[in-house]
Structures are given as C-alpha cells and as structure tokens.
Specification:
TIM Barrel; globular; 317 residues; alpha/beta; two-stranded antiparallel ribbon; 11 helices; eight-stranded parallel beta barrel
C-alpha cells in the first residue's frame, strides 16, 4: 500500500523506522532481530538504506595501485523483499543518485515494481570520502530532483527507451528528504526551501526530515514549508543520543544542533548507560509533543538496533 494512502487513512500518528543492511558477509538475521523487537508497535513502513560503492587502493607488487570498487552494505532490494514477505509490512528502499546511471536506476525500479514494492525514498546520497563535493555518475543524476522526474515518468509509462511499445506504468509513491536545519550543501534556507518545493511539484508525495533534537526546529520548518506552498506530509525523523561521542559526531555529519540542556546533561553523565537513558527520556518527550501536534508519522533512525527505539515507543504507540 502507498504511504500517502496510509497517512490519509490514519486516525493517529503512525510509527515507522529505518534500518541498515548488514555489513557484507553478515547474516540478515540482524535485520530480523531488529524488526522483531519493534514489530509489536505495528510499523506503517520500514525504510532500508542504500549504501553506494566506495573505492580502495590496492598496491601491486610493482608499487603501482589498483582502484578497487567495494560496497560494504549491499542487499537493499533483497532486504525489502524479505521484509514484505516475512512481516507483511511495506518496505521503502532508498534510491540514490551516487553510483547509478539512469539506466541502472530504471532497472532497479523495474525489479522493485516486480517485487510489489510500492514506495521509494529518493535521495541524492553522500559524496565519496575522496570527493570534496558530490560528483554524479556519468549518465547519472546530479540531484534528487532529477531522480524524482525519472520515477514520475515511469509512473506515467515513460521509460528511457522511447521505442518501447505500450510500456506498463509503475505505481511508486515517491518520498523525499528534507532538512529542518538546512541541507549542508545549500547556501541558505530560502534556496533550500525553493529546491524542496520543486521536488514536491515534480512528484514527491511525502517528505521525511533529517534527525533533529529540538522540536521547535521542526515546527518552524513546517510553517516555512506551508508558507512556501509545500503541502505534502512532513514526517519527523527522530534518533536518541546513545553515547557522548555523538555530541560531536552528529552535528558534524548531519548538520543538526543539539540543545544545550541535552548536551549539558549528557556531559555530566558518569556512565554510558546514563547517557543512553538521558537520550531516551529526551526523545520520549520529543515524541510526546510531536504526537500532541498530530504529526502524520514519527520515523525512528534505529541504526540497526531496536533497544532504544523500543524503550521510546513503549507507551506511545
């Protein structure tokens, strides 16, 4: 079922979460263990991230180097199929620009369509660690807007090969990402909102936010979106802080502020368990307020672990 239809039919805030594919060589059982710990909260959907290829340099005997492609977390499409088969819950694969040509993207979407996957989250994706900025694949997409256009075309029966006879339209519900504290590559908030509006006009039917720790940032962002004419559901993305290191890592990686009250409490904590409990309680308060404001869905970034999300969701969903 399409996510937008679930949101329209829901009488209360829905629960959803994101998981990471296991590292290459590891079992899918870790995914099932995470889902088993959260399935009682009746997730409306489960996101599965996609991780592009990376490159390593392997030294030859003669001293030269080979550039070798490697993907650390493969399996997104197969994991989505397994989730829908095992749990009868809609899986939402991330589709990214990086590492894909337009033809690669079309072929992946055809496979997803054949598997009965009806929702996709379309993202530009991160640049490689060796790149100072995002560099698209030759004959690939430069950004998520171009990716949205391609999926929307397929929904209208328009494929890359214009000579196909009577091609069957796909029926993907298109999701996009948004950033209450601005995308790190956007020069300013206004240009970020302009780009976001173009994504909804192109076909994005719902938006999921980057993680945030101050609900005011989310509420203010939603108002800005509405003033800009962006009317699609905006799903808040939530993650509890579970270690002191995250006070420094999360703002750097995700361009998000951590409120002083939260960081101060965590810095005073004496044990890892105390830090985790502070993060859980803060996130519980966030979720309670978000539910009071009747947000469509609360989406949890689990990082592959169910324990903290379970502690937060208990009593709320």
């Amino acid at each position: 079922m399409q996510i937008i239809e679930k949101i329209k039919q829901a009488k209360d805030t829905l629960f959803s979460f994101e998981i990471l594919p296991p590292l290459k060589g590891k079992s899918i059982d870790s995914i099932f263990k995470c889902i088993d710990g959260l399935i009682e909260f009746n997730p409306a959907f489960i996101d599965v991230t996609y991780h592009r290829e990376e490159y390593i340099l392997k030294k030859r005997p003669d001293g030269s180097f080979d550039r070798i492609s490697t993907r650390k977390r493969p399996g997104t499409v197969a994991i989505c199929a397994s989730i829908q088969n095992k749990y009868k819950v809609d899986a939402v694969p991330h589709i990214i620009c990086g590492g894909f040509t337009k033809e690669d993207t079309e072929n992946a979407l055809i496979e997803l369509d054949f598997l009965g996957i009806r929702n996709v989250l379309l993202l530009r994706g991160d640049n490689l660690k060796t790149e100072s900025h995002f560099i698209p694949e030759p004959k690939g997409h430069r950004n998520s807007l171009e990716l949205i256009y391609q999926v929307k075309n397929m929904n209208n029966g328009i494929y890359l090969d214009e000579e196909l006879e009577n091609p069957t339209p796909t029926s993907f519900c298109i999701g996009g990402a948004c950033y209450p504290e601005k995308h790190q590559d956007a020069p300013n908030v206004k240009s970020d909102l302009n780009f976001l509006k173009r994504k909804t006009e192109a076909g994005a039917e719902f938006l999921t936010t980057q993680m945030f720790f101050d609900n005011t940032k989310y509420f203010d962002f939603v108002k800005l979106c509405h003033n800009q004419g962006i009317t699609v559901p905006i799903i808040p993305g939530i993650k509890p802080i579970t270690s002191k290191n995250q006070l420094f890592l999360l703002p750097k990686i995700f361009n998000t502020d951590i409120p002083f009250e939260l960081s101060n409490e965590i810095e005073k904590a004496k044990t890892d368990e105390a830090v985790k409990q502070i993060g859980i309680e803060w996130c519980k308060a966030q979720c309670k307020e978000l539910k009071e404001h009747k947000v469509p869905v609360i989406h949890f970034y689990t990082m592959g672990f169910a324990e903290t999300t379970r502690a937060i969701a208990k009593g709320l969903f």
